[in-house]
Design brief:
heterotrimer, A mainly alpha (280), B mainly alpha (311), C alpha/beta (288), A: 280 residues, mainly alpha, Serine Threonine Protein Phosphatase 5, Tetratricopeptide repeat, 0% strand, elongated, C: 288 residues, alpha/beta, Rossmann fold, 2 domains, six-stranded mixed sheet, four-stranded antiparallel sheet, 10 helices, globular
Chain lengths: 280, 311, 288
């Protein structure tokens, strides 16, 4: 009986053909990988640091093509650390999460919010620590949040949500008006940025020492856009600057009509999640 | 005796059926036999486990925005579907040929006028049918879970915004769009297709291994290892091939492994779609072509091993 | 050797199995030649490991000979056309346990290219032949060993092959089931099928085979018709019914007068197998 490949050891032949196929497909797959990464459909491999920090099961999952599933599981774990106020464990977990899913904006936003807002708030009121330690940790977590934000912006250069969360740290926690203004300014014009970002840029610039003139010019230009911009805070900020910069009377804007109905003041949550969801 | 005789006389030849070079009918017979076999082996019971995961995922309650919550549910659902699909693909394929061999059912099939390529194609076809069907069922369960939660979250959000009273219709729509972006979108069907591509390549690789191996357990273990290594292609390139500190031995070993083992990582493009990225259809088409390439090559290699295998 | 009327023709066939690196090899079949004529029942007997199954697998095309050739109705056994001529029942067949008896026959029929009314008619016919009509819709997982052998025989016949190869067809089957299979083999011979049977159960082979080959350590030791193989030269035995002691004495005297010595005198006995079957049948009748 004539048999195919009777004299060739099967396995060697198979391996040789497999290698030939591998050499042919390699450039094709490399091109495909580049296109998929360009289309944001495929992620570059996780950073080496992510692997060093990962648990064995997470590592296996990642290798098994289950990055998303592992990252989601770790997100749930991070919520657990949040509820037990284990901030260092939370920070480490988020470092892995963002390495696994660097293109998921919500991971970055949550990491910044947890560290920059929640962890710092916890330090402000943690009576079990001495004051000096509380203040040191407060700054450490605030800057950890800022570091996440900078990495996030490098990954997602147009992200508005990351910038707004970063601005919150500067505004609420560090009370750095100049940095707050810089972040709001950087947010203007990016896709999805709402109108208030421009006003906030002006308001915080107005409170940044040395930037009053620039802020005045900017706010006036907003004011001149029309009635939709004649909001009480905007007018108040311009009025303050007119006094501070000794603007001549004839150049000053008119006082607001005292008879105009004013909207009721709205209480802003101190630790809002993106989308305005309150944390219980 | 009621059986009709094959011959009138022992020495007279009867008209024998012609055996064509290739018969789709025989392939389909083996395919449908394999589907029936997997059905009756109750392999679909794993779908209950999947449904349980979905129920758990559908009831996640996180301190997060509705969009984030929906995104988490979606990622858990689709990630689990992916895991189940490739794992099922390996186990089902690994069970078929070695089991036929162990049970000697293979003798009776190959003793009939069946070409070995027809047998392999039929078995692979059967596994792919079952994997495809399972993915459709899992996809439907996912769609129901995500869709139900999405409609719930949307109506809650609209209610909350309307109760607040100071949001303009445009702002409400913007917020709802944000939620819907993480909800049930038609592109998610492409995710199911992507999982099918991956599972099909996994099945073809397992088929090759099962023709070389003689036991199901060995095939399953080696296939899972190959799959894990296949997911580390880009990683291997970055860590070992581009690092100057590695010896040439390490580089050669990594290169050989990369050449021999399929790159499963490129099939993870589905993760991008799950996260809401826009997917160009031509890219999915090209991934389909790559899948077909893998299937053809691995089928031919399996045949090369199987064609003169003695039982 | 002429191949004009041969169902199976094995010529000078050797099969060697390598045992891996540095372990050498084992010769399973050594220069075997055999010929099964069309229409006969040929029994290949030998102890376990004598090379029977290997020979059968070569004839079926499941293995290639290391040397020599194997032909089925003039076709190389590796040729797929030859498979149309062969029906095969392996030893202890495990068919798909999830299929019913009827589905099993239909499955194998479809593999042979049969479809529609032809396949349905043939399936019914075979179920009747092997007496499994009542179990046709039961899954094979619930079949007894004898039933499995019978459904195996049915599937082997589905495409109306001219040659049926049976590997230890009654292995592990109880005597009643064994006899059913034996009867089926005899009926197949009557129908004109060629049967090539492998067994180590000598009594079974003796009952059904026209010709027998004895294989031992891969070599054919003896081959011929049953009479040729078992006849003892120069001796004859008589079995008499209702013989009186007087007549018996006369026969002894006559033999002595002619110079012939009577070597033994005994009452014929039934075999244990025969006795078992009689009891089983009478038990069955009583119950029904």
């Amino acid at each position: 009986m004539k048999r195919l490949f009777h004299f060739v050891p099967r396995l060697i032949l198979v391996l040789a053909l497999l290698a030939m196929f591998g050499l042919v497909r390699e450039p094709v797959e490399q091109r495909m990988r580049a296109r998929l990464i360009e289309a944001n459909l495929l992620l570059p491999p996780p950073a080496q640091t992510a692997f060093e920090q990962m648990s064995q099961s997470a590592m296996m999952g990642t290798l098994g093509g289950l990055r998303t599933l592992v990252a989601t599981y770790l997100t749930l774990e991070a919520f657990d650390y949040f509820s037990t106020k284990s901030w260092d464990a939370l920070r480490q977990t988020y470092q892995i999460i963002v390495d696994l899913e660097p293109r998921d904006e919500s991971n970055w936003v949550s990491a910044i919010w947890h560290l920059g807002i929640n962890a710092t708030a916890n330090m402000e009121y943690n009576d079990r620590l001495p004051k000096f330690e509380r203040e040191r940790l407060f700054r450490e977590y605030a800057f950890a949040g800022i570091a996440f934000a900078e990495r996030g912006i490098a990954q997602l250069p147009d992200s508005v949500a990351i910038r707004l969360q970063l601005a919150e740290i500067y505004r609420v926690k560090l009370q750095d008006n100049c940095a707050t203004a810089r972040v709001y300014g950087d947010t203007i014009g990016r896709p999805g940025a709402l109108g208030y970002v421009r006003r906030f840029y002006g308001y915080f610039m107005a409170r940044c020492p040395g930037k009053e003139r620039e802020a005045y010019d900017y706010l006036i230009s907003l004011y001149r856009e029309g009635k939709q911009q004649h909001l009480p805070t905007l007018i108040k900020e311009i009025k303050n600057l007119e006094v501070k910069l000794s603007i001549p009377d004839k150049e000053r804007i008119p006082d607001p009509d005292p008879d105009l109905p004013r909207p009721a003041p709205q209480s802003q949550p101190s630790t809002p999640l993106p989308g305005g969801i309150m944390v219980p | 005796m009621s059986s009709s005789p094959p011959t009138e006389k022992a020495d007279s030849r009867v008209q024998t059926r012609h055996v064509p070079l290739f018969s789709l009918g025989r392939v389909l017979t083996i395919t449908s036999g394999t589907v029936t076999q997997l059905f009756r082996m109750k392999v679909f019971y794993f779908l209950f486990a999947f449904a349980l995961v979905m129920v758990a995922a559908g009831n996640f309650s996180l301190p997060a925005t509705p969009a984030q919550e929906l995104s988490t549910i979606k990622k858990v659902s689709f990630g689990t579907m992916d895991l189940f699909a490739w794992l099922f693909s390996i186990v089902a394929t690994a069970l078929l040929i070695p089991r036929d061999q162990e049970d000697r059912t293979l003798y009776t099939i190959l003793a009939k006028p069946v070409r070995r390529i027809e047998y392999l194609l039929g078995k692979l076809g059967g596994v792919l049918c079952v994997v495809g069907l399972s993915l459709l069922v899992m996809g439907t369960i996912c769609a129901i879970t995500v869709g139900f939660r999405e409609s719930l979250l949307v109506s809650e959000e609209i209610g909350a915004m309307q109760a607040d009273g100071h949001f303009a219709p445009d702002e409400v729509n913007q917020q709802i769009d944000l939620i819907r972006h993480q909800g049930l979108r038609p592109e998610l069907a492409l995710v199911v297709l992507a999982y099918f591509f991956k599972a099909a390549v996994v099945a073809a690789v397992t088929l090759l291994l099962s023709t070389i191996a003689s036991s199901s357990l060995f095939t399953i273990i080696v296939s899972i290892l190959v799959f894990l290594i296949g997911n580390a292609h880009a990683l291997a390139t970055g860590f070992w091939l581009q690092e100057s500190g590695n010896s040439w031995v390490v580089r050669i070993v990594v290169k050989v492994v990369k050449v021999l083992i399929p790159d499963f990582q490129i099939f993870a493009f589905s993760e991008g779609i799950v996260q809401g990225e826009v997917v160009p259809y031509w890219l999915v088409g090209e991934m389909g072509l790559i899948t077909v390439g893998y299937l053809l090559v691995f089928l031919l290699l399996s045949l090369l091993v199987f064609v003169d295998k003695e039982f | 050797m002429s191949s004009s009327n041969a169902a199976v023709e094995v010529e000078n066939m050797t099969k060697v199995f390598p045992l891996g690196l540095r372990k050498g090899s084992v010769i399973a079949v050594d220069s075997l030649s055999l010929r099964v004529e069309a229409g006969e029942v040929y029994g290949l007997i030998g102890p376990n490991g004598s090379g029977k199954s290997t020979t059968m697998k070569v004839v079926l095309g499941l293995m290639a000979p290391s040397k020599g050739s194997a032909k089925v109705f003039g076709l190389d056994s590796g040729d797929i056309q030859a498979r149309n001529e062969i029906g095969f029942l392996p030893e202890n067949p495990y068919f798909y346990r999830h299929l019913t008896g009827e589905e099993t026959i239909r499955f194998y029929g479809k593999l042979c290219g049969m479809r529609g009314a032809e396949l349905s008619a043939r399936t019914k016919e075979l179920l009747r032949l092997v007496d499994l009509e009542s179990a046709a819709n039961r899954r094979l997982a619930g079949y007894s060993k004898g039933m499995l052998q019978r459904i195996g025989l049915a599937q082997s016949l589905v495409q109306k092959p001219r040659l049926v190869i049976l590997d230890e067809p009654t292995a592990g089957v109880d005597p009643v089931g064994s006899r059913q299979i034996r009867d089926l083999i005899l009926r197949l011979r009557d129908e004109g099928y060629t049967v090539f049977l492998c067994s180590h159960l000598l009594a079974q082979v003796q009952e059904v085979c026209d010709r027998v080959g004895i294989l031992f350590r891969g070599k054919m030791r003896r081959e011929g018709t049953l009479d040729e193989l078992v006849a003892v030269e120069g001796r004859t035995s008589l079995t008499l019914d209702s013989v009186s002691p007087e007549l018996l004495a006369e026969i002894h005297e006559l033999a002595a007068a002619k110079g012939v010595s009577v070597l033994s005198e005994e009452r014929p006995r039934t075999s244990l197998e025969q006795l078992f079957i009689q009891l089983a049948e009478s038990e069955g009748e009583t119950r029904s």
